[in-house]
Write a structure and sequence with these properties.
Elements lengths: L2 H34 L4 H8 L3 H10 L1 H27 L3 H11 L38
Helix pairs in contact: 1-2, 1-4, 3-4, 4-5
């Protein structure tokens, strides 16, 4: 192999290594920014100076990075839950209702209603769309 080709090859390898180091440095900076912003991606990206698209590409391509991001999201949720419990302890009715609606569904604290027939039997129904001269026709979108 010619010495010129060897130098070019080594130069290209060094460039790739610099780019990899730069990306790893950026990922580390993002993790630190996410910790400071309680996992808010837009804020972290602005702090580091990258686009959200780049962030999500890193997330997609690097499972270790994705794991670190998930850990931060879990910590943020833990923090918010602790704030919710603090409000519940202080007698905040809205916080109490929110907690029950999200965590106590199996005990009947739900918004939706289920309509059944006698003794819980299923109700079957059929919807038929009828078009006539006094009805506006349904046009496919």
């Amino acid at each position: 192999m010619d010495r010129g080709l060897i130098k070019i090859h080594l130069f290209n390898m060094a460039k790739k290594e610099q780019k990899t180091n730069s990306i790893e440095h950026t990922k580390k900076a993002i993790i630190e920014a996410l910790e400071k912003s309680l996992g808010v991606v837009t804020t972290a990206c602005k702090i580091v100076g990258i686009s959200r698209t780049t962030f999500y590409q890193y997330l997609k391509d690097d499972s270790d990075f994705a794991k670190e991001v998930q850990d931060i999201e879990d910590i943020a949720i833990d923090f918010v839950e602790s704030q919710l419990f603090k409000q519940i302890k202080e007698g905040n009715t809205t916080a109490t209702i929110f907690y029950l609606k999200t965590k106590a569904k199996k005990r009947g604290y739900i918004e939706r209603q289920e309509i059944t027939g006698a003794e819980g039997e299923k109700i079957e129904f059929k919807i038929e769309v009828v078009q006539g001269k006094n009805v506006f026709p349904i046009k496919p979108e």
